[in-house]
Design brief:
This protein is of the alpha/beta class. The strands form two sheets. A six-stranded mixed sheet has the order 1-4-5-6-7-8, sandwiched between helices. The protein is globular and about 45 Å long. The protein starts with a helix and ends with a helix. The mean pLDDT is 93.
Length: 225
């Protein structure tokens, strides 16, 4: 079981649901879980599945939006790629992108924020937005808020939008009128969250369904031009 298998499941659902397929990501992952379990060798499948699911959710999200991101003239990469590659082996483009995203901890050095997806302009190497993708908000929403504050504290990175993308399987984002802590963090500390869910949510400027992400990135691109 790997990301290609999950993409195949997504494409099969796309035949049924078209542009609304994003609402069925949790169901797709449930199907993937059954296949993953049938191939699993070991004592703790749940632990193995949680790690697998988290890692491949971000890859699936990147797959879903990559063509549309490219059509805007932007480039999308996995956030870990800048960490994994030996600095000496980075292309000039990625080296500049990395420098444009670094956070200065002064005597403790320069460090990259923990983000899953990076969207940047291949012409200017300017980072427009970073995305964190998790199954539920409790997994990393406060940490994502921290990275937004750190990026906003520097004139070099303050323009970078920080978004959270999630299936919101625990329903944290559903209500704006009676917000849970995770929704409060999104509304006050992030630039927004995009939700892949069948559930009806109370939308706002900061919380929207996933299909609105590309439109918002297009507006962001126009503003930054």
């Amino acid at each position: 079981m790997n990301i290609k298998d999950i993409i195949a499941l997504y494409n099969a659902k796309k035949e049924l649901y078209g542009k609304e397929t994003y609402r069925h990501v949790s169901a797709i992952m449930q199907e993937a879980k059954a296949q993953h379990k049938s191939e699993f060798i070991g004592d703790d499948h749940e632990q193995s599945w949680r790690a697998f699911k988290g890692k491949n959710l971000e890859k699936l999200i990147q797959h879903i939006i990559e063509d549309e991101i490219n059509s805007l003239g932007l480039t999308i990469i996995n956030g870990n790629s800048l960490e994994r590659i030996n600095p000496q082996n980075l292309s000039r483009e990625l080296e500049i992108v990395k420098r444009n995203l670094l956070i200065d901890y002064h005597e403790f050095g320069m460090h990259l924020p923990d983000v899953d997806i990076i969207i940047y302009s291949p012409k200017t190497y300017q980072v427009l937005a970073v995305l964190s993708s998790k199954v539920t908000l409790r997994e990393r929403i406060a940490q994502t808020g921290y990275w937004k504050l750190k990026l906003a504290s520097s004139s070099i990175t303050k323009h970078i939008k920080v978004y959270f993308v999630t299936p919101d399987e625990d329903g944290t984002l559903i209500s704006r009128s009676k917000p849970k802590k995770g929704r409060a963090i999104v509304e006050t500390d992030l630039d927004g969250s995009y939700v892949l869910t069948e559930a009806k949510i109370e939308e706002s400027e900061k919380v929207k369904t996933f299909d609105k992400l590309i439109d918002d990135l297009q507006k962001l691109l126009i503003k930054s031009a």
